[in-house]
TrEMBL record:
<dbReference type="Pfam" id="PF21377">
    <property type="entry name" value="MurD_N"/>
</dbReference>
<feature type="domain" description="Mur ligase central">
    <location>
        <begin position="108"/>
        <end position="287"/>
    </location>
</feature>
<keyword id="KW-0436">Ligase</keyword>
<feature type="binding site">
    <location>
        <begin position="110"/>
        <end position="116"/>
    </location>
    <ligand>
        <name>ATP</name>
    </ligand>
</feature>
<keyword id="KW-0067">ATP-binding</keyword>
<dbReference type="InterPro" id="IPR036565">
    <property type="entry name" value="Mur-like_cat_sf"/>
</dbReference>
<dbReference type="InterPro" id="IPR036615">
    <property type="entry name" value="Mur_ligase_C_dom_sf"/>
</dbReference>
<keyword id="KW-0133">Cell shape</keyword>
<dbReference type="Pfam" id="PF02875">
    <property type="entry name" value="Mur_ligase_C"/>
</dbReference>
<dbReference type="GO" id="GO:0008764">
    <property type="term" value="F:UDP-N-acetylmuramoylalanine-D-glutamate ligase activity"/>
</dbReference>
<keyword id="KW-0131">Cell cycle</keyword>
<feature type="domain" description="Mur ligase C-terminal">
    <location>
        <begin position="309"/>
        <end position="421"/>
    </location>
</feature>
<protein>
    <recommendedName>
        <fullName>UDP-N-acetylmuramoylalanine--D-glutamate ligase</fullName>
        <ecNumber>6.3.2.9</ecNumber>
    </recommendedName>
</protein>
<comment type="similarity">
    <text>Belongs to the MurCDEF family.</text>
</comment>
<dbReference type="InterPro" id="IPR005762">
    <property type="entry name" value="MurD"/>
</dbReference>
<dbReference type="InterPro" id="IPR013221">
    <property type="entry name" value="Mur_ligase_cen"/>
</dbReference>
<comment type="pathway">
    <text>Cell wall biogenesis; peptidoglycan biosynthesis.</text>
</comment>
Amino acid sequence: MSKRIVVLGAGESGAGAAVLAKKEGFDVFVSDLSGIKPKYKELLDAHAICWEEGHHTESDILNADEVIKSPGIPDKAPIIQKLKAQETPIISEIEFAGRYTDAKMICITGSNGKTTTTLLTHHLLTEAGVDAGLAGNVGNSLALQVAENPHPVYVIELSSFQLDNMYNFKADIAILLNITPDHLDRYNYEMQNYVNAKFRIIQNQTEKDAFIFWNDDPIIAREIKKHNPKATLYPFAETHEEGTKGYVENNQIIVESENGTFTMEQDLLALTGKHNLYNSLAATIAAKIMDIHDDKIRASLKNFAGVEHRLEKVARVRGVDYINDSKATNVNSCWYALQSMKTPVVLILGGTDKGNDYTEIEALVKEKVRALIFLGVDNRKLHTFFDGKINQIEDAGSMEEAVNKAYRLAQKGDTVLLSPCCASFDLFTCYEDRGDQFKACVRNL
């Protein structure tokens, strides 16, 4: 009898995992507590895969030999608790897909910047002619690509939730950008649990592999001493420190690797801001390890278009710039956004709080923010922290209300910045929906 694989969650990762499992000859069943999007139903039906939506039939799930879990399902979900109690193995889609490919894996994680770095790394490779797939939190399901459209190289954005259920998978090149508090609601409000998840990116690495990381992150520095990575280390920093392989000197980006030293004028980078300097250094180190030609790297760093919903310039209305940073779903992301602002700011923040500590942005808010607009169902925590620190604070129950208030409060030469610090699920379906609504409201001004 064939091994039974149950896939929980039928989004991009779950549907892809189901297709690969079916191709490999397993008995496959897909169950999603929510509704399944029509395109994924069509994909499952096309491969004759059984599925259910809107509920979990426990008898069809608890008999699994192995479960592939969507990263969005928390461990405290009742069905996961029951599977754990009977010691059914639970893995991620990435872990499962890794069993059926020997492709080179470039894996990127971090609390902030991972999407930009993933897309930039993929851009550097593909522009140089490398056949590289894009997977994980961006691009298409890794499992689906392995099943139907395999590539010799994959660039994969990994969240802590995906890393949680990865055991034997190995990154040939691992990039860890930074670690700041995020998703603590999923880690029992224990920062170390979240840190441990991030450091799973280097598990199983050998001397032949590479570990790229930000040298000045205090948490990474502490954890590296504990983990003693086997991989070749490629630390990067803003300035040339002892041992750094990527840095800036005399306004030149410099990256040292076994494949030679890369240099480029920093001013020529398409991406601006300190956080994007780090993202560019990390991606460039990966490209050099992959032996991409310097001229190709330079051209790609100059023409990279950036990421939607990440410090995205929307419009200038009556001398006021409107910037969509909806992807800033934690406090540290907002810190980077505020740090890059050169004008007075009207800041829109708020949403579903994930255990946020706003102390990190307090000094920048006092220095740069003219007015605050709290966009959320429950803004009490924001008021408790910021009331009395900024003169103008207003609440908004919809994006239209928030943008209209920002329009009224902003003065010529200001920037209206949507950088929410929070998840979007109280008023929006996702951060993309929040950003799209912001852009639509701004364009209607």
